[in-house]
Amino acid sequence: MPFLNCPDGTKLHYEEAGAGQPIVFVHEFLGDIAAWEPQLRYFSRRYRCIAFNARGYPPSDVPQRVEEYSYEQQRAGILAVLDGLGLAHAHIVGLSMGAFASFYFGMKWPRRALSLTLAGIGSGSEARSQFRAESEAAAEGLLRDGWPACVEARTLTPTRVQYRNKDPRGFAEFVARVTQHSAQGSALTLKGYQALRPSLSGFAEEMAASTVPTLILCGDEDEPCLDVSLMLKRGMPAASLMLFPRTGHAVNLEEPDLFNLACERFFHQVESGQYGMRDPLARTAKMI
User: Measured in whole angstroms, how far is the alpha carbon of residue 109 from the centre of its chain?
Assistant: First the structure.
């Protein structure tokens, strides 16, 4: 079972498949390596695909202190994957919690990202005090009761029910995987990362200066992410936005074919040099 070392000594488990230009997949709070299986199977035909479990998600290490789960540690985990595998750069694809880490990574180490794909990004980015309180309460519940007792409340939500309705079998497998997660690792992730990560709007200057090709993907029924996705698209001159109709939060699982095709076309545009900055005139047009 392969592992990579973070600068602080935390070991991250990873898997890879295929050969070619590298893609690194960064999972959401309820995800892990297995949640990227539809993408690993598809993209490994033409790309070198790497997925890893974040800290707190066995068989990756589960550090014991909340300070070891900061947003800085999370984005440094992506860098550790690149450095550990000797990759100068890669396409970085993140979902939800993983999209935040991918965004933070791209703002600090833009030359290491061939592109950024930010899917389902935005939950809790603006209503920070409420989101922090909810994250703290969820963490305490996990520590007290464990994942089997908490899994329904975390998975059967307004932004997840679309997945259950479209693919009951896939949703059941997803829920079963979540129950196997480390309650302690998940709780510390909620306390140290989810509750304390900085708002995306606080990176306005970095976004405006970013030239990293960026694709923002969002389900149109993922209400907490809609406004933030539009804000990112407006604030990043090399960003584009795609909405998935009648789709919730986990877009890569709920609509894997559409997700894969959107990413594949984006990667091809980036690699062929066809994906550039938006024309300034398009961003300054006025109604007359």
Answer: 16
